[in-house]
Fold these 3 entries.
Entry 1:
Amino acid sequence: MAGAVRLLDQPEQQMHEAALIQRIRDGEHELFYELVRPYESRVYSAALAILRNPADAEDVAQEAVLKAFRHIRQFRAEARFSTWLIQIAVNEARMRRRKEHADLMEPIAGRRDEEGNYTPRDFADWREIPSESLERKEIRRLLTSALESLSEIYREVFVLRDMQHLSIEETAQALGISVAAVKTRLLRARLMLRDMLAPGLEGAWNRNVSFRKGTKPW
Amino acid sequence: MVVNCEQVWREISNFLDDDLDPGLRSTMQEHFQECKRCTAVLEGTRNVVQLYGDERLLEVPLGFDHRLHRRLDESLYPTRRTFFGWMVAAAAAMVVAGGFEVAKSLSSSRSGLRSAHAQPGHAVPPDMMVVLYPDGKTFHVAGCTYIHGKTNLQTVTAREAGREGYVPCVRCLKKYLQATASIGYGSDAS
């Protein structure tokens, strides 16, 4: 069903990665490129989810990949390499943000009342999504803008879970929070985004995209 | 089991992730059949998950992978890079040094002459005995009118005279002052 967990790696790929990691540890350093290549964009998007600045995110992504290489001997096989790598990126991004006090600029959407229930604001019918709508740059920009308006605690969970397709447990591990916290934040992030993007609100869609009033953007 | 709308909203994320016990899941499905509002929330939330789950949203800046690999190169192959850098630096230094040497040899050939306007001789027999005087700029064959009455005349070989910066006399040694004259005196000095 839609929204169900999609596996990031096939078992064969995990075995392949384990073999690669062993050979890298044995000195075949050039194989690190092959190991890390499938996850380069994910490392970047994880950093971007926290920092919201493309230049900083790229720098942090590079640092994270380099750190993974330097500490490849510390990787334990019980975790996926991708989860470990993203965890490093998350930690690097958080350190960068603390250093630059960027949290002073955090959006307030959803910042408070994490424990309380979230009540949807919009109940318009929103069923059809032609996949080709994502080909349009303004649609992607709108989705990105809505995501950026979430506060960090929701944004990072949503990005790792729904965009990078980590499992709930992997998301919890990468962010260093409990499984329950991941579920709570994920629910709120999804509902907040839905409220922001639902056509019935005539909010974000109609303000930022030149669609006729009341019509769906897809 | 009966669930109200608020309970459905609390569990709607787990419903989408198929992370519910079968009983609650079945109850929610019954609720959706009767509640248009909750169905709208479910479908909208599903759309959000579907839209953001598309890899097209995981765009990276242009040239990101190139810059990342370049930085990896620097970390993975520091010795190779350093060695290469040294090679380039050494080659550049050799080119510069060679240039200096050429420039130096060209300039010294003229600046070593006693006269800035003098024309060096061409193929002067190095062992030919010539006459010069210490304050002069040219060397001559014995008896040249240009040295008539000069004191302190010295007789040396053309090679020695050339080394000291003397040039052939335009009168008595004119044949060695050709327009195509090159630097030096005989094969020994050229």
Entry 2:
Amino acid sequence: MTTERVEEKVRQTLHAVALDRVRAPGDLAEKVVRRRSRRRFSQAAGTAVAVAAISVGAVFGFGDTGTARHERPVRPAASPATPPEGWKPWQSSSPDADERGCVVDGAALYCSGSKYDAAKIDANTGKRLWGVEVNREGDGNDHPFAVRDGVVYAYRNHTAENLPNGDYSGGTDLMAVNAGTGKVLWTVKMPQDDRTDQAAMLIDGAVLANTPSVRTMSALDPLTGKEKWHQTWAKGIVCQRAVLSAVPYLLCTPDVESPGYTEILRLDPVTGSTTKVATLPGGQQLVGTSGDRIVLIAAAGGDRKDMRLTTVSGSGEHASHPYRVDGPLATFDVVGERLITVSRQGKASAHSLTTGETLWTRPVGVKVPTVDTMPGIATPVASAKQGVVYFFSPNGDLSGLDLHTGEQVWRTHVDTGKPRPGFGGSPQLLLYDDVLVARNGSKMVSLLPRIGD
Amino acid sequence: MEASSHDEFREFVQMRSTALLRLAVLLTGGDRYAAEDLLQIALMKAYGRWGRIEQHEAYIRQVMYRQQVNRWRLQRHRAETTVPVLPEEATGAGAGADAELRIALWAALGRLTKRQRAVVVLRYFEDLPEAEVAALLGCPVGTVRSTAHRSLAKLRLLVPELGPEGPKERIQSLSYTPKEVQR
């Protein structure tokens, strides 16, 4: 074949790629602004930063690389795990139904995949029970985010149609599905393609959703999707959302790179009326919630290595503790009253949200992908009953560390294969009672960790 | 950044990010996550100097291309990551042998180095002349030419259906041969 013909074939190939499936996330501008802000902190700490800011705080370097400090004496290995009735170890048997992730409720997994926007999978067997087919396509990192009173809440494309110029128009709907039958109960159009945990959440008696505009939160009737009330904030303000004991809170800051303050507002779940409960200095980033406290992080002072971790109660009482930036993180989560972090160097740490102390720092026990690799490790999950926090790497490594000491009490390796293209996000780890469900791409493995074996 | 610039930035991202992300997907060989990362990096750089940039989109595209080349420079000691791609992504409306060839070619494009892919996308997707590609990447025209040549050669190796260089190349080659050898 001549060079000209090869060039033409390359040209045809590049133009034949189905790019109309590719849509930028609706919150991209916000991600960029936050990531840039975080990168400046990390650069000050002398760390290399190239991590996509998929979630808030993902590149903060928390931690203390010093020796482990045990608040409690080392205790024997955790209580033995017991399987739920009817459960047997299984591997994924529901291709196209789980690549986007799952949530556990009762004895079921509710998942999203390439062919199903919502699918119910028996957590005991891995068998798919029903599925809501995708609206043209199903890709991304979203999955059902909550189940309550027999209703599953998930996302799907608003339309399967193309725009007049031929581009796929897409858009996102919030969707409620009958958990027993898989019947779609209602859909509500969202103003952007944000399908993160900030887009919608359950509150007392309603679903709080970021609709119909990007600066509005609406309480929707869980059974009909009809609006009960809404709150809108002014242009030039951005508000993060958190829920404590089914009561919603807004964390609002000026929409600038270095905001001077963060106001915390409580919303009445019945009427939507607001009460300011606290004003904190600087731009506070939501890390998570711990019981009845919101966990926030912000830069502290001129030295960008120094940060402050703040907890705020529903009544506005707050306490802050200093943190030292120590490089980018592979993952983190608030587990009980601890902030569990994993550094890109493979160190897991537990910080007390009450005292601000580093309780322990230990090897995480799984391979941590390099900073240049987009998929990170799964968000850790903890079994309070066993007193173990579990970690899962995309290469199939699983590790369990004692929540109190950081000592490794269990590890194994599972074959989760390679994720399908377009589903290269981080793996996911779920707890079904004492059973672990590890998902990487489309493959899921359900196993019972035998602590102490 | 001033509030007006900030609003302008947001508006730009809302209007153009999908088109830019599509370009990033090509540059990263179909890796959606790496593509978003690349776009975010370019947008971050633009954000910091938004008010001083005249052509925002051109600037961001240039940063994306250069970032891709820089990544190659930083990571050239590592093996290239092959990103598998769903066959239907490259089939389009075509069917049969042509569609199969495009599937094979798309897979092979994913195995080029990042630098090679950047040059291929600029030359054959953006249809830019070599001089403009060189200006965008900040390298000599000769480097663009040799990179494109090596990219096509690698594609021939990876996709046997493309076959060896055809008769035209041989004729061109002969035309540069000294007369005494031709004889």
Entry 3:
Amino acid sequence: MPPVLDVERVDYIRVPVTDIDAANHFYGEVLGLRRNPNSPDDDWVEYEAGNVTLAVMTPHTHDYEFAPLPPATIALRVPDVATAKEKLEAAGLEVGEVWDSGKCKGVGVSDPAGNRILLHRRYAPYADGTKP
Amino acid sequence: MEITKVDFVAVPSTDWKRSRVFYVETLGLRPDETGQAEFWVGNTCFGIYEPTTFGLEFSPQKNAHIALHVDDVATARAELEAKGIEFNGDTFDTGVCHMAFFTDPDGNDLMLHHRYAPRT
């Protein structure tokens, strides 16, 4: 049966925050994501994470209530999870313990609004032998 | 920090098999070739997981409103409604894009999205 839709990509994922200045510091200066210069408003700031745009925005200025994302909703790829943890801790952030699934490693860090972001790296090759 | 991409987007679920049916068979998203609980939207991987298996309380994603890009929101909405998917409110026109809000079977927020205005 053919698919119902022809979804091409994820245009963006909202990242709800309570303080846009603190969020801009975290996503722009700590994580180092590129801020999209076409971001439409001061309460909707877009950061580019390679394949997905993260729309950092304040629900309270968009007529709905803030609730943090479930843990690890967004898994960001880093070259090395342990190094990322060290860098974040050196920047004064509290970072979780590194876990190892047997195929990948990850560590959680909270943004200033309490969204638990996962920093992630798969080290095991895929079935076809390629690596991320 | 050197972040190169989003490796995956986690989808909390109370029944991963039901979620898979919804995302793969109803929405028609591309199933991963090896991971039964994974599917792809363009070059972005989504991973379905049951929080309770990790000792976590289930809580749906209610704020990310993951924006799924389609060519035409009205057409896509009609096609999904014909499959029994209920949408939350009318399609919203922001002045630069169309948005139609719905949820997956666990209440995770999704939207059909199409920006029709050019970027400045």
